Amino acid sequence: MQDYKSLYSFERSHSRKNMLRKGLFALPLLILFVSALYADFGEQSPPQTSIQTSPDSADPIVVKLKLPTLDNSKPIDIELDNTPIAASKPVAAAAPPAKQTPPVVVKATPKEINGKWSIHKVKSGDTLAKIFSKYGLSAKLLHNIVTSSPESAKLAHIKPGQELRINTDTAGEFITLTQVIDAIHSLEIKRTADGFSTERIKQQVEYRTAFSNGTISQSLFLSAKEAGLSDPLIMSLANIFAWDIDFALEIRSGDSFTVIYQEEFLNGKKLRNGPILAAEFINRGKSFQAVRYIDKTGDTDYFTPEGDSVRKAFLRSPVDFRRISSRFQGARYHPVLGKKRPHRGVDYAARTGTPVKASGDGKIIFRGRKGGYGKTVVLQHGGGITTLYAHLNSYMLKRKKGSRVKQGETIGFVGKTGVATGPHLHYEFRLNGTHRNPLTVKLPAASPVAKAYRDDFKLQTAPLTAQLATLSRILLADAQL
Ligand SMILES: [Zn+2]
Questions:
Q1: Residue 439: pLDDT band by 50, 70, 90 thresholds?
Q2: Alpha carbon distance 66, 426 (integer Å)
Q3: Ligand 1 mean position to 431 CA, how many Å?
């Protein structure tokens, strides 16, 4: 199993000349506009990087690029309520109601007010019932809490590693239970006069903009690392441009990149990196730029500064493959049939059960067994294009004949039904009925920014584009030193 780091290495030695730059951006205008982007982080559907086999070797090169989403692509809501989670300084629910003379309240013995706080790290096999019993709380109380509201019922979804903070008074009676969901979110259940109150608490995250740029000496991975980019950010960068640049084979020494990305801070401490806001990659002298745009419906995607999609209407490969076991070719010796016959698709060897994704938006026009193809799905797309997925182990049940599918949605699972020596996906791409090589066929672009959003797009992304230009100039100036 090859990890993606090695992918970025290419075996030429070059003099190293890395321009590293990383810093915080204080450009108020940028921050202003960038703050408009914070409302939502839609998940990017991770594009597939393109794949190549060695043109002159009989054995295909093993290439694998597992494409993660951003390290934190989960949506994060920003709330103005700045209530911190009662972590080190628990607030007692049993404290007397706030009076006009708070100092008097504070004078009371803290122990008396706070009762006892127990912190429980959820282990595998833990149930709420077990945890409650461990801390001397009754099953009836648990029942009353989880049935008190739909929100409190979520308490039942405890996961190993999560933290529960239980507050009881001196008599051992329940006061508060806090379920820490992640660094930002928690669920707090309090006893009230007439039952329980449940509140979802979110801490306010501060967003900052950072940038990084560098020139590639040995590999994108190493150079980007030196420029201060984390692995997930490097992968995000590769994902954004994966439709245009083959990061496995086409990267050259002297290529350069500039990335403007978000950083998230909690209480002044960096929590994690946010998404890439804008990026440029110069590959063999050709510049590729992308800016992140969230439209008014909350859809997030990367576009060129002109508003064209950086994605294509089709994934280059419909599976996270481990290797290409057979390339598209006119004729080959068929390993099972023992005779020469044309192979008009690409085979992706992958473990049985690996999800097979629709390479583009379309409709399922065939789902069933098809002779040597075994279990097969055929999709009809726009523009006279059909794609075929064969040797499946099983289908995605809910996606039947006639179903509409979106690019990247799972339609089935890798197997070896039909005539196949081992588990693999056989993938075909046909244009008006003619087989085309899925690895090299020119793919139509995905939709650009909708007309209705063009003005908004320009408004949101112009500062990022300007920033990219500035950073590129700095990089260029450094390179010429
Ligand atoms: Zn095949």
A1: confident
A2: 19
A3: 18
362 C-alpha to center of ligand 1: Å?
22
My answer on whether 327 and 432 are in the same domain is yes
CA of 347 to the centre of ligand 1 (A): 5
The pLDDT assigned to 427 comes to 92
Question: At which of 150, 171, 202 does a domain end?
Answer: 202
Task: With cut-offs at 50, 70 and 90, classify the pLDDT of residue 13.
Answer: very low
Same-domain status, 427 and 469: no
Is there a domain that residue 8 lies in? Answer: no
| 273 and 363 inside one domain | no
* DSSP notation for 345-405: SEEEE--TT-EEE-SSSEEEEEEEE-GGG-EEEEEE-STTEEEEEEEEEEE-TT--TT-EE
Do the domain assignments include residue 112?
yes
The tens digit of pLDDT for each residue in 100-143 reads: 333 333 333 334 456 788 899 999 888 889 999 999 999 999 99
Distance CA 425, CA 351 (A): 10
For residue 390, the enclosing domain spans 323-436
CA 425 to centroid of ligand 1, rounded, Å: 7
Indicate the residue among 149, 173, 202 that finishes a domain.
202
pTM: 0.55
| Centre of ligand 1 from the C-alpha of residue 48, in Å | 20
- CA of residue 56 to ligand 1 center, whole Å: 20
Residue 218 sits in a domain of what CATH number?
3.10.450.350
Collapsing DSSP states into helix, strand and coil, what is residue 288?
Answer: strand
- Type of residue found at 283: N
- What is the C-alpha separation between 281 and 258, in angstroms, rounded? 7
User: For the chain, how many structural domains are there in total?
Assistant: 3
pLDDT band (50, 70, 90) for residue 380: very high
Q: Has residue 96 been placed in a domain?
A: no
Interval 57-90: pLDDT, tens = 333 222 222 223 333 333 322 222 222 333 333 3
pLDDT band for position 318 (cuts 50, 70, 90) = confident
Q: At what angle do helices 28-37 and 454-479 cross, to 10 degrees?
A: 130
